[in-house]
């Protein structure tokens, strides 16, 4: 009988661990989504894998890097545009290449 209580105690600890870490909530949400799916997928396991992979939160560092990348792309486009304008402006004040060679 003592062996039975020890097994129950370990199960209860494990259940609390899963609950505390959010595993039970996540699994419940994915299973509810599968239940509510109007057309059941051929592979329930693939459905679970796909939704569990998508359910994991983004790494905050990745989010910051993506934001920084977007900002850098905007700055790059602005600098390229400014460079074009400056080249056009410079071309107005520089003599053509043939005149430079004649001097």
TrEMBL record:
Native species: Equus asinus
Coiled coil: 62-89
Domain of life: Eukaryota
Subcellular location: Nucleus
Protein name: c-Myc-binding protein
Keyword set, alphabetical order: Coiled coil, Nucleus
GO cellular component: nucleus
Family: Belongs to the AMY1 family.
GO MF entries: transcription coactivator activity
